[in-house]
Amino acid sequence: MPHLGLIFLGTCSVVAIYWVWRVLIWAWWTPKKLERCLRQQGLKGTPPKFLYGDLKELVRLERQARAKPMNLSHNIVQRVIPFIHQSVEKYGPLSFIWFGVTPRVFVLDPELIRDVLSNKFGHFSKLKSTNPLTRLLVQGLVSCEGEKWAKHRRIINPAFHLEKLKMMVPAIYASCSELVERWEKLVSDGSCELDVWPDLQNLTGDVISRTAFGSNYKQGQRIFQLQTELAELVVQASLSLYLPGFRFLPSKRNKRIVEIDGEIKGLLRDMIHKREKAMGIGEAPQDDLLGLLLESNMKETQGKEDFKSLGMTIDEVIEECKLFYFAGQETTSTLLVWTMVVLSIHPEWQARAREEVLQVFGKNKPDIDGINQLKIVTMIFYEVLRLYSPVAMLARYTYKEMKLGDVTLPPGVQIALPMLLLHHDREIWGEDVEEFKPERFSGGIAKATKNQVVFFPFGWGPRICIGQNFAIIEAKMALATILQLLEWMWWKPMKVQRYLEKQGIKGHPYNLLYGNLKELIHVTKEALSKPIKVSDSILPRALPFDHQIAQQHGKLFVIWLGVTARVNIMDPVLIRDIFLNKFGHFAKVKANPLINLLADGVFSHNDEKWVKHRRIINPAFHQEKLKMMVPAFLTCCNELMNRWEKLVSDGSCELDVCPEFHNLTGDVISRAAFGSSYKEARRLFELQTEQAEHVLQVIQSIYFPGYWYLPTKRNMRMKEINREVCSILRDMIKKREKGMKDGEAPTDDLLGLLLESNFKEVEEHGKAKNVGITIDEIIEECKLFYFAGHETTSSMLMWTMVVLSTHPEWQARAREEVRRVFKRREPDFDDLNHLKVVTMILYEVLRLYPPVPVHMRYNYKEMRLGNISLPPGIQIGIPALLVHYDPELWGKTSKNSIPSDFQKESQKPRRIESHTSRSVGALEYASGKHLQ
Ligand code: HEM
């Protein structure tokens, strides 16, 4: 037994001595030998240090550099690769350090770099990671060599051809616009400081998910999440020295790594199987990277006997798909994030880039043809890639003895091409090397580099990045979309603000996206929440924000309604010019599509279309025709009076006239516009009233393009109402048209007159294009009758009641005139024309309580107005209410026309003859709800 024990001990000692010997050779003797070889040829560098080499110092310096806050200089070399920078400074451009036990030789000579990267003899190979965990993350094309690499590259290449990339542009755009929509939403929720880095990382991951896996995009997203987690775990693992067998230890991290790897492979394998199966039964391959790769793989092997060795196996395809994420995601997002940083440091280049983007795309979505025209943006990307190259260094390895210039490199040496050092080399780029100057690339890369291999952010030679065009298209698309967004919500408003300020047009400053809307809503709500006190002016209640700003900044002021400026003008001469619109450049303001549901007829049309509609509608409003409607007006008024009389006779004599007049004017429109179809018209009236309530709520928030399509409860109800309204109107119109075709005389209501006028127009001008208005347009005009004629008139009536109840002397004069003219018979049209006092009263009511407190126009061309110049794209507001109360125009009594005791009076219900008025309700209605 002791004998056996001795043998065992002896064997162990021999094995141990053998391993110690091997380790010494690996960790000491070989590095020493390599060092001698390099030094003998004149290379300088650090001495080898046992096992770790310079790794500890390298990590320490990097940590130290990154712990410091970063200033905004582009000189980032000492922060990103401090140790390499220090070594090259100390030992010269052809020097070495120790990456563990392996020497790493730096090559900075452009000619030598060309030799390494062109790899003519195929002996400068890619570095093989010693850590098998890293191999879980990066395999495939980027790490394979020789024949295998050539085969994979041949098969993958077609998927990255420009023609194929073109087909991926919509998918790239989808990801970009999703990002921008999310930003818009964030900003609209009130937060406007945003860390773009994680968002841009997600963007580039999303782009790969869509472009690589098309319809399987959701699985792609899952793979992206898993890859991101895997990358984090692997990075943690690679920060420590890898000991053989370590990955088999059942540590928490190792277990998770294996789990993730299994899930990724499972997802990809499933997808690939399904696609292969579909292609096997003759389905066309999809246009995504995976589809193109499988198609190319199939072509490579089709009809060939040794297809197994010619094509890629499923596992290899899986590795390539994983590589798309690894190689294309972080790199492109780094490029994008630095571009954002740099463009905010250099607003002049941001402006140039934006100008170019807007010139090429306007507000349209970016497409591939436009992307190819972006010269400035390309120059900017090159300069960002120079200063902030996403890949700081390329590395190769000598498996054989290799000649590099005058030096012979033994096998087992790493060659490092620190491109960041070259990109920041003063001798190559000049004294302004650390400045951001995209113009150095105005003549292209070759000119900027004088044809040397000194700028290679995507690598160079046969192993140049296969996704280079993909990355550039993606980055351009993202930047264009972001610049379009920023232009719309920040730069354009700021430019307009500066332009107006220079001309003395002031107001509250523009706030991102909301402009002054938040303040406006706040001030309005506050004004309305106070108990009604009608002192000497209704301005602070009816138009509080405009009033406040006008008091602060005078009669020419600006208000920001979201991103649009509204310049408010109170000078009568300028107001005349705007209303006359001699040059036709002041258009009606386009409402958001929800408001258009309520009214989108002649009221909002412009130019030719307006002229035609107005011509066709005009005859229906001729005095002669209006005369014919007087009986309908009278019927409605009589009905109202009868009801009031009944109420009074029943003993109740306090009445809220607000809904009464609301109903009256709705009734008048129903009868005057739709005559015999009055019952259906009542339903229309109810529906339009409900629609108006919804619209009122909508206009209090910002409208986002596309919001209308969201299936919110309100949107759905609004669409339902609209359908019912349109269907009732369509039925009515069709019946009338049929009657007219059958020779029936058109009815004397607005609809009849409109159809008759339209009919005449078509008859006169024959069947020429654009003659007459379509049935849909007639529907819109009918809807408009309610919108434009109902609330406005009832507001005027209510205020007349209020004012007459507080001015009994005028009430007496009006009553006296009415009695004198009508002589106790029913009023007719001519009688109405004799009511002078009543007309004066109505005018004064319209002055003091205009139902439309602000008129708006849109300026779509640069326009001169008096001494000011108005930029295109702004609104022009004529704040009628403010103008009507301007003491310079109306005298000092402008605000005091209503006696000072109005306040007391208004709080008491007061009877006007047998009719009662609750002025409080009326005032609330007109100043609050209506004038908002
Ligand atoms: C700004 C973005 C990008 C940069 C800066 C970049 C940079 C590079 C560099 C420097 C190399 C060469 C590595 C070497 O020679 O050792 C490379 C190779 C590679 N890149 Fe990119 N890349 C980017 C985007 C992409 C994208 C979007 C994809 C794919 C979707 C991609 C896929 C690859 C692949 C597969 C290789 C290996 C090519 C081969 O060895 O044949 N890259 N990339």
TrEMBL record:
GO terms for cellular component: membrane. GO terms for biological process: secondary metabolite biosynthetic process. The chain crosses the membrane at residues 7-29. Residues 896-932 are annotated as: Disordered. Heme binds at residue 465. Residues 902-916 have a biased composition (Basic and acidic residues). Its cofactor is heme. It is found in: Membrane. One of its GO terms (molecular function) is oxidoreductase activity, acting on paired donors, with incorporation or reduction of molecular oxygen. Pfam families: p450. Its main location: membrane. InterPro entries: Cyt_P450 (IPR001128), Cyt_P450_CS (IPR017972), Cyt_P450_E_grp-I (IPR002401), Cyt_P450_sf (IPR036396), Cytochrome_P450_Monooxygen (IPR050665). Belongs to the cytochrome P450 family. This is Cytochrome P450. It comes from Stephania cephalantha. The lineage of its organism: Eukaryota, Viridiplantae, Streptophyta, Embryophyta, Tracheophyta.
